[in-house]
Design goal:
By secondary structure, the chain is of the alpha/beta class. The chain is built from 24 helices and 19 strands. Bound molecules: flavin-adenine dinucleotide and 2-acetamido-2-deoxy-beta-D-glucopyranose (NAG) (3 copies). One 2-acetamido-2-deoxy-beta-D-glucopyranose binds next to loops.
Length: about 750
């Protein structure tokens, strides 16, 4: 328990460090608007300065200091503007620079008087601070004159109101209605931006915290029969139909009911938070009301899109803290990753379409299309769309190698484009870029840990042994691992060196060190010896001690054995390469197992409520259930039963697995064979199909006490098991409930 809590502490430290790193890395403002970054605060002060767009007499030098504050389209929106006087080295303009404003005594006095009359609620200190930030130092390094000093200079109450067309060559009064119309705008703008970050945080935080809370619910003392029923109705079955692991029409996979609830939550939350909480007042005549509404929606969806990026990347990670803190599977997070990525793309598209609509329907936007922020933004949105389209399973599986590189490259490009988009438009002041930095930290962390995991084992060699035309075995000496590992084969083919695939470790093997690495570990004359030295993973306590050496040593060398089914991609290239005397170079990334997690339950243990284990494996899926068979230790608990039903197309795979486990059951010509592997009752179906529904009904109904069902195999098979188990659990027979817990080890990802 001590190590448990220290691990949790370490994790939180990691999370904190990550956040700190994200914050430190971000060069601009830290935090988000309303959370560390102020925006239009105080509103009264910003309303005063917004009211003061009046012509000023500026020197040409002052006008050259900074780009003009207002842009072309604001100019265009203005009514026919009078021609203002200008002279040698000076010019009266209604587009003054901050430098010009900071030098102009009339401007300063008018502003100061407005602040004095409208900002009663603010302390003088706050206004001083705002004043300094709003105005600027003059080129000679002096000024701006402090607020209180300027205020003292106003001897009598200004009487003349400002006039938008007259040069400000007197101390003016900001009329109440002018101030008010700007106040409405500024207040609305500030509120909208605050809500944008507030809602973003709600989505991101709840997206991470809800899975953790849901996982913790399991530790409450619910009766096992309730849990069974709840899972059978609300969690395990597919939302509609009978397919979950099998893609539907090559378009996507049907979520389970539990997954659907969370996906629905994310959809509803995103739609609601994109629709509510706007302050759509259009106070000044700056823009039409319909444009104001459109802009507010576009800004909201834009910010939400940015905020979702780190969460989308977090869900996809192999090394993410949600996998460690929840009992949700990687498959579930990948499913949520895809849905949330789709939502994120929708936000980006909506944002872009609404701004496009504003641009084509309003005057003065022609230049916008050529501005850098605009085309970076377009690039980002197009990137999002491409990412989603090419992730459709039909496309992804057909061109997996291209999909993989493209995914990484396009995500990187989208992040860069999105970064440029906001930096060019707003500099770093508003913190939108911080979402992207967060995403980079999360992604970088996953990549670093992945690299750490394969560097830990170093460069290894895999030895190939064919089993039959479908299956082969890979032995990788010098590695110890359990659970599953990702294999990288840098030399397998030009186009696949970046690919890596997950495989379950079928066994840890022990090899007397004398074997030269140049001979396959399962060479014929050594077979006997390997057999004797091969132990199933569960029974070895030494699995974690690394003996990372390829050299010939006298000590025992551990290794791992994998059983692989040849598909059409990398697994086929491997089979085509076949047996290589020197082995195939490989990097082993792993292991990914239950020990890396706190709440995952991928290895069941017998308990009072669940004393029985029922494993159902299809083909090479046997590797996914072996750990469960080995760990489910019923010694001293004679009540429980341990059964394995395994369907395999041919005998060689069965023989290979049995040999590895040190049993010799022989070949049964009937194709149906019952045998015992140690304390496990095994029923083999070789070459004929299991009647899954029938056997589950028989097994689960007759069981005393609860049963853990572990299944792994082809997607159609695991789908059938999923639906059959849920159906049995839902309906009592003769008033006797079936108490069952289901674990589906998925080979799809
Ligand atoms: C945890 C885990 C353990 C596994 N253990 C084993 C094992 O012990 N033995 C074994 O034979 N297989 C195992 N698999 C399956 C194995 O990873 C795949 O069979 C292998 O990746 C197929 O490679 P391929 O290129 O030959 O496939 P192809 O048939 O060419 O398939 C095309 C590509 O699509 C990818 N792909 C397939 N399904 C998906 C999907 N749903 N989402 C994204 N990409 C997908 C594959 O990686 C593949 O490269 C395991 C899978 C997982 C997730
Ligand atoms: C503007 O200021 C300059 C001095 O900087 C002055 O010479 C000029 O007369 C002023 N113009 C007006 C219209 O006040
Ligand atoms: C502003 O000044 C112009 C003359 O420059 C005048 O015609 C107009 O009435 C003034 N407007 C207000 C609101 O005082
Ligand atoms: C201010 O400028 C106007 C011209 O826009 C001029 O008529 C007026 O005399 C000036 N007043 C002062 C005080 O300079």
């Amino acid at each position: 328990m001590a190590s448990h809590s220290s691990r949790i502490a370490a994790l939180f430290l990691w999370a904190l460090l990550g956040t700190a790193a994200a914050d430190a890395l971000s060069p601009g403002a830290h935090g988000f608007i309303g959370y560390g970054i102020t925006y239009f605060a105080p509103v009264c002060a910003h309303s005063c300065s917004a009211s003061l767009y009046v012509p000023l007499n500026c020197t040409t030098d002052d006008l050259a200091v900074l780009p003009q504050y207002r842009r072309k389209r604001d100019e265009a929106a203005e009514p026919a503007k009078p021609v203002y006087p200008s002279g040698d080295g000076w010019e009266v303009t209604n587009l003054p620079t901050t430098t010009c404003q900071s030098r102009n005594e009339f401007y300063l006095q008018t502003l100061a008087y407005c602040l004095k009359t409208h900002c009663d609620a603010q302390s003088v200190g706050d206004i001083e601070k705002w004043w300094e930030a709003e105005l600027t130092k003059l080129p000679d390094g002096t000024g701006p004159r402090p607020y209180s000093e300027v205020l003292v200079g106003i001897t009598e109450k200004p009487a003349r109101p400002i006039n938008a067309t007259e040069p400000l060559n007197f101390t003016a009064l900001v009329p109440e209605e002018v101030y008010h119309s700007h106040y409405v705008d500024v207040h609305g703008g500030a509120t909208n931006e605050m809500r944008n970050s507030q809602y973003s945080l709600i989505i991101v935080v709840s997206g991470a915290v809800i899975p953790i809370l849901m996982s913790l619910l399991r530790f409450l003392p619910w009766p096992a029969s309730w849990v069974t029923k709840f899972h059978a109705y609300f969690i395990d079955p597919p939302l509609f139909g009978s397919k979950h692991s099998t893609p539907i029409w090559g378009l996507g996979i049907m979520p389970t009911r539990g997954q659907a609830v969370f996906v629905a939550y994310l959809w509803i939350l995103n739609i609601v938070l994109a629709c509510v909480g706007y302050e759509n007042n259009s106070g000044s005549s700056y823009d039409t009301l319909s444009n104001t509404i459109k802009r507010n929606i576009a800004n909201r969806t834009g910010v939400l899109c940015y905020a979702l990026v780190p969460l989308v990347i977090l869900y996809a990670g192999r090394n993410n803290f949600l996998l460690w803190l929840t009992n949700w599977s990687h498959t579930t997070f990948l499913l949520v990753h895809r849905w949330l990525a789709f939502i994120c793309m929708m936000h980006a598209v909506l944002h872009s379409l609404v701004y496009l609509n504003i641009a084509v329907t309003s005057e003065g936007w022609e230049d916008e299309f050529t501005l850098p922020y605009w085309y970076w933004g377009c690039g980002g949105t197009i990137g999002f769309v491409v990412l989603v389209i090419k992730s459709i399973p039909a496309i992804r599986q057909r061109i997996y190698e291209i999909f993989l590189v493209a995914h990484i490259v396009i995500v990187a490009l989208v992040i860069v484009a999105s970064y440029k988009h906001v930096i060019i438009k707003y500099s770093e002041a508003f913190g939108f870029q911080n979402w992207l930095w967060m995403a980079c930290v999360i992604w970088g962390f996953d990549r670093l840990v992945r690299m750490g995991r394969w560097l830990r084992h170093g460069f290894k060699r895999a030895y190939f042994t064919p089993i039959d035309e479908d299956y082969y075995r890979l032995d990788i000496p010098g590695v110890s691992a359990d659970g599953h590992v990702y294999l990288h084969f840098p030399t397998i083919s030009t186009w696949r060196f970046w690919e890596n695939h997950p495989f379950s470790v079928a066994a840890v093997t022990y090899q007397a060190g004398a074997s030269a690495p140049s001979t396959p570990i399962i060479s014929a004359e050594k077979e006997k010896q390997v057999e004797a030295n091969t132990a199933a993973i569960g029974s070895s306590s030494a699995t974690d001690t690394d003996t990372d050496s390829d050299s010939v040593t006298s000590q025992r060398d551990t290794g791992i054995a994998l059983f692989i089914r040849g598909h059409s991609g990398l697994t086929k290239s491997l089979a085509a390469k076949g047996f290589q005397p020197g082995g195939i170079p490989v990097f082993v990334e792993g292991s990914y197992n239950h020990r890396a997690t706190f709440l995952q339950e991928d290895i069941p243990e017998p308990s009072h409520d669940f004393p029985n284990l029922l494993c159902i494996a299809g083909g090479v899926g046997i590797t996914g259930v072996l750990p469960a068979l080995d760990r489910f230790n019923t010694a001293g608990k004679p009540l429980g039963t341990k059964k394995l039903f395994w369907g395999s197309r041919t005998w060689p795979l069965v023989r290979e697995v049995e040999r590895m486990r040190g049993v010799d059951g022989g070949v049964d010509q009937s194709g149906l064979s019952e045998r015992r592997w140690g304390d496990v009752d095994v029923t083999l179906y070789v070459g004929n199909r299991m009647d899954l529904t029938g056997l589950l009904k028989k097994e689960l109904r007759q069981q005393v006490g609860g049963t853990v069902v572990v299944t792994c195999g082809p997607s159609t098979m695991v789908d059938e098991v999923r639906c059959a188990v849920s159906a049995l659990a839902r309906h009592n027979e003769n008033g006797k409930p079936v108490v069952v817990k289901m674990m589906v080890e998925s080979f799809t990802w």
